[in-house]
Amino acid sequence: MALLEVRDLRVAFPRGKSDEVEALRGVDLTLDKGERLGVVGESGAGKSMLAFAILNLIAEPGRVSAGAITFDGENLLDLPDRKVRRIRGNRISMIFQDPMVTLNPVLTIGTQMIETLKAHRRISDRAAHKLSVEKLKLVAIPSAESRMDAYPHELSGGLRQRVVIAIALLTDPEIIIADEPTTALDVTIQAEIMALILRLCRENHVALILITHDLGVVAEVTQRLMIMYAGKCVETGRTREIIDAPKHPYSAGLLKALPQNAERGQRLYQIPGSMPPITALPAGCPYNPRCPRATDICRAEMPPLEGGVACFHPLTAEEEVTA
Amino acid sequence: MITWRGVLRRFLADPVAIGAGVVLLALVLMAALAPLIAPQNPYDLMQLNIMDSEMPPSWRPGGDDRFLLGTDAQGRGVLSTIMYGTGISLVIGIGAVTVSAVLGITLGLLAGYKGGWIDSFLMRLADIQMSLSTLMIAIIALALFQAAFDANIYAEYAIFMLILIIGIAEWPKFARTVRSSVLGEKGKEYVDAARVIGLPARKVMWGHILPNALTPVLVISTIQVAEAIMTEAALSFLGLGMPTDKPSLGSLIRSGFEFVFSGSTWITFYPALVLIALILALNLLGDWMRDVLNPKLRRGED
Amino acid sequence: MTDPIVETRGLEMRFALPTHFLSREKPVLHALSGVDVAIRPGETFCVVGESGCGKTTLGRAIMGLLTPSEGEIYFRGERIDTMDEAARKPVRADMQMVFQNPYASLNPRRNVFETLAEPIRHLMPEKSGREVRAQVEEVLDATGCDQSWQRRLPHEFSGGQRQRIAIARALVTNPAFIVADEPISALDVSIQAQILNLLTDLQAERGLTYLFITHDLSVVEHFGTRVAVMYLGQIMELAETETIFDDPKHPYTQLLLDAIPKLTGGSFDAPRTPGELPDPVNPPPGCPFAPRCPIAQDICRAERPRLRVIPGSTTEAACHFAE
């Protein structure tokens, strides 16, 4: 049985007095123990919404309007708040883009780590301190012992994100959800942090949901991949296979538009237009206005997700998307 | 982005805002149309008759139908004096805010944009002035003015003096507000884009930064009008404001105050009621505007 | 070799940090320490580096947004950093800038026409109202903007559309040289290709010279003619794009290239040691990269290496040991 299984997850926000718009429009997802899954999409595609929904953290006035999130045999949406809190931050941890979301600027690193531990475990202060230092060493923070007394602002951006990872690892979670963990960081620091996350997941057999807009990072770190567009998953499958031979015209377009995949000095392949806002989606497939392969059926019906791709005219292995 | 249409829509959806708006509009109209609708002209000495003094409101025994809310010690109809007095209070309030807004916006813009010693100097000046209360400055200035000139000249120029003194005393509030929003705006790239084409600092400040820094000024202006009217009322109550022959709401309250214990409460009561309604309406509107215009408090829209 | 269109000689930029007025120390941040670049007409000169390396400061100094502490800036052989405003006016029409954040670079209270007309009105006051309108229409066409946008306000547009408008504003005075400071890093992946293509097309049509500032090496590889790699206010390596990617000489360039996530995957498998940018207020006496450098020797910590041509190549590198 999968460790985490999400079925037909929908998140809705009120529009006006009686109307609602869906930001997440029926997303399925399975995650096995120790598996690394990448969720890729543009801003507004709903990828962060997915993470927040799994953790039951959708802010008012939004709400999960349908679906099931089964973690270890229990539907998180049916559990009382008290029980969800025992899972969130304990068995499922989260790393945000901005370390200061997790870190409290007026408390020392040590205080925050010990508090996190004590919130989920019966543990003495001394044991919590010892465990915290261990975790800081695990994420390769130099002079870990003395960093326990440091305040977040005394650390550089890279070190802060390492501390956040150490906090996420404190409770030995089964799943880590990382929402753009390196977007705010420099390239060399990004490489360090991603290599660290990758090693930790492998060594401790932790499952990872990595939310990002960067296909390169996904290719480096994840085993499976999910590509989202306008609140829906348009393609899912093994990372390697999608990157080598994407089936959905959107995935293919995204990959082809990357400068790495273009001839030096030549024009890049470009997807025309931009993603429609969730409040103004076209009928049928949400990608159809930008899709070079769209036909009448695409403008009338939403293609179902079959064989890992939600498209009426998927690309075959030899085909390339053309403008 | 806040549009006029959006503000109007939110105004119409908020009963408190509508209520305050209606009260304010009624008072402004009453004051503006006073010469047309007031039963008497309290400034016209020919119309006054000492025999009419201290009449109670018309529904009380001894009342007169000509004077709905009674008369004061000089035989002026309380209703008419309130109508004219509201106008004078509003003129002083709006005038004082105009003075402090012009001063405060200019100096705040300069301090925020130029920075350095200009900023330090202007802000320390503002700090010093803020540490002296407006009322204290006004009392000293007006007492000197009253002592230096005779009563006729004082009566003639009192309104300008009040506007000027209250206006100058309140500039630091505007300057600080403008300065802080200028500091937020000047780091934005559209300001750099304007500087790249070589626009002089004056044009960058007034043409680009100021329009984007004005929203909070709008909010404090409304509340400052209320505050200026109150300051004027307090000064008049102390006998340092408008003279009794051109009364503002404050001087009306004062002139009736001597008669409160002799039972003629209406001379003070009705002007006070109008003053409270005016201040309350302005403050409620100011609060409402702050909520609407402050994007940090807005959710789920735009 | 042709004369450079823009040249800097020994450019230094120091910022005094705010302190308490009683404190004796006057800390100074060295944003640029001795930068020489010579940008040739028609090329795309890329400046790459991580945050805090001084790449944005360099662009802003050239545009006159910052006054250099020391050094000289030339445009077409004329020294511009000491020019008075009247003499500089014609030069300004020839130098323009595109900013990183299209959400902040357009004045929210001005419609597109006013935004585009302002540079013409200020820099070319001899133009009549009709000429201004014609020029605005022409530049809207050239940048793929619709004429109907003229009376609309920035908040009505998406990020990609705003960046087009920002590019149109930079082009409206027909400049020869454009500083583009991270023009695509705030945009979504599918929009980045559109903007890069637009910049490529405009360069071909108008013979523009770009100073392209970015942290993204994959964009540089595709887009650049020559590349300067910066670190802590200094140029570490300067070479033709192909050369630098095929044969990086400086250890820092190698580290940067190694940090790019690759679609082929596998390069994050080895653990990386955390590296931090040295404090720019107290830079190390020798090579700024020495504390992170795998081949650093004693001389690197004592003596700052000068930019020199590496024997047997066209690359210039600031390293004692590069070969």
Automatic annotation (TrEMBL), chain A:
Transmembrane parts of this sequence: none
Coiled coil: none
Lineage: Bacteria, Pseudomonadati, Pseudomonadota, Alphaproteobacteria, Rhodobacterales
Annotated GO MF terms: ATP binding; ATP hydrolysis activity
Protein name: ABC transporter ATP-binding protein
Keyword Aminoacyl-tRNA synthetase in annotation: no
Organism from which the protein derives: Roseovarius spongiae
NCBIfam families, sorted: oligo_HPY
Cellular component, GO, one term: plasma membrane
Domain ABC transporter: 4-255
UniProtKB/TrEMBL annotation, chain B:
Membrane topology classification: Multi-pass membrane protein
Stored PROSITE patterns: ABC_TM1
Keyword GTP-binding (UniProt): no
Transmembrane domains' residue ranges: 12-38, 88-113, 125-147, 153-171, 213-239, 259-286
Biological source species: Roseovarius spongiae
GO biological process, one term: transmembrane transport
Pfam families the record matches: BPD_transp_1, OppC_N
Family: Belongs to the binding-protein-dependent transport system permease family.
CDD domains from the UniProt entry: TM_PBP2
GO cellular component: plasma membrane
ABC transmembrane type-1 domain ranges (all copies): 86-286
Descriptive protein name: ABC transporter permease
Protein's UniProt keywords contain Transport: yes
Keywords attached to this entry: Cell membrane, Membrane, Transmembrane, Transmembrane helix, Transport
SUPFAM superfamilies, A to Z: MetI-like
Compartments (UniProt record): Cell membrane
Automatic annotation (TrEMBL), chain C:
Domain (ABC transporter): residue spans on this chain: 17-257
Membrane topology: Peripheral membrane protein
NCBIfam families assigned: oligo_HPY (TIGR01727)
The organism of origin for this protein: Roseovarius spongiae
Main location: membrane
Keywords: ATP-binding, Nucleotide-binding, Transport
A Pfam family matched in the record: oligo_HPY
Entry similarity comment: Belongs to the ABC transporter superfamily.
Protein's name according to its UniProt entry: ATP-binding cassette domain-containing protein
Lineage: Bacteria, Pseudomonadati, Pseudomonadota, Alphaproteobacteria, Rhodobacterales
Entry GO terms, CC: plasma membrane
Location(s) in or outside the cell: Cell inner membrane
GO BP annotation list: peptide transport; transmembrane transport
Gene Ontology MF annotations: ATP binding; ATP hydrolysis activity
Origin superkingdom: Bacteria
